[in-house]
Task: structure prediction
Amino acid sequence: MIVLAPAWSPTTSLLLLLLLLSPGLRGTPDCSFRHSPISSTFADTIRKLSDYLLQDYPVTVASNLQDDKLCGAFWRLVLAQRWMGRLKTVAGSQMQSLLEAVNTEIHFVTLCTFQPLPSCLRFVQTNISHLLQDTSQQLLALKPWITRWNFSGCLELQCQPDSSTLLSPRISGALGATVPPAPQAPLLLLLLLLLLPMALLLATVWCLCWRRRRQGTPYPGEQVPPACSSQDVLPLQLVAN
Result:
């Protein structure tokens, strides 16, 4: 008995390769936590670092992150963790231990494969005390959700739409409601343009009637030509139109 093997062509290989590379088959990187990586003492750890740092030490924070309840908190912790790494490189030995303790509280964000920071992010300068306070608030907001939510959809930081180029319909309507009404000058000009031909027509009719009566001045005994009436004006209006 002879068994025929199925034909294997380059086209078949290409189709299989495309199927393997399809995003639907690859899936998305997992970013979920079975056990909570947020300790119950993170607030004390951050407060200890705040006691040793200059409160007005300048740092930067993103000012236009998309306003998302959970992803937004996750994104702010990603940026805060990067600052902890920078500060460790310039801090003394005692400060490094405090920075490392805070970094340990938020290091779990590095377990997820984030995309590179988008070029649309805008940063503003603030104090280190504000950054640490915000970090504590974000940890507090994430703590009830960290084991119940899959953060795979948060792996790319999102920027808010640029308000100078994109307005929501609600804002556009509000702006439109405050725009003053257009001036009435164009309407008056249009009215004058419509009345001008009528005035010229009436002037022409009057001149014709006046000329007719002057040319038709009767000799003694002749009948005086009748004055122009509405019946004479009507044909002239039709001709003018």
